[in-house]
Each structure stands twice: as C-alpha cells, then as structure tokens.
Amino acid sequence: QVQLVESGGGLVQPGGSLRLSCVGSGSGFIIYAMGWYRQAPGKQRELVAGITSAGSTNYGDSAKGRFTIAIENAKNTVYLQMNDQKNEDTAVYYCYADTGTGSWGQGTQVTVSS
To answer: Which among 32, 40, 54, 74 is least surrounded, fewest beta carbons within 10 Å?
Structure first.
C-alpha cells in the first residue's frame, strides 16, 4: 500500500506560478503511473495531468500549454508545475498513484486570486 502526501499548494495571483509535489511512501508497491486531479467547489473531480513511470504524459484540456507534469521514479514523486494561473484553477488538487490499484492523497488547496 502506498501513502501519498501532497505539498506546494497555496495562494497565487493570476498569471503566477506554483509547483505541486506528491511523494509516495510505504512498502511492497510498484508505481506504474502518477498524476493529478482537481475538484473545484460544486464541480466534479477532473483530470489535470498524468504520467507513466516511462514518462508518457496526458493532460486535461485546462492544463494544456500551461502546466507540466514530471515524475521522479527513484523518489516515488510526481510534480506539477503550474504557470500562467487563472482564477478558474482554484481547486483542491489531488495526487493519485496507480500501483495496480488506485491510491489518492488528501489533497492540497490552490487558490488563484488577486
């Protein structure tokens, strides 16, 4: 079983940048893919970006061209670099890991506001 802990959320102004990190810990697992979802108040959880251990990526429409996902397999860590942030990026961002079963972090709040 893998435990996921996110960090890096906070308050950022429109046009600004944040970098989220998520570290997986535990024993007896292999991570095949990691990524990020987000959920804004009153909305469904949506894919932001995902990446396999081999480095293949996919992005949700809202993230394309602005966000970059990266994985560091040796550290069981996934990063999300978010640039040119918009008010509509405000949400709780959840990390996930595919180890054959899905695991989720507790989430980190990102607020984009002036």
So the answer is: 74
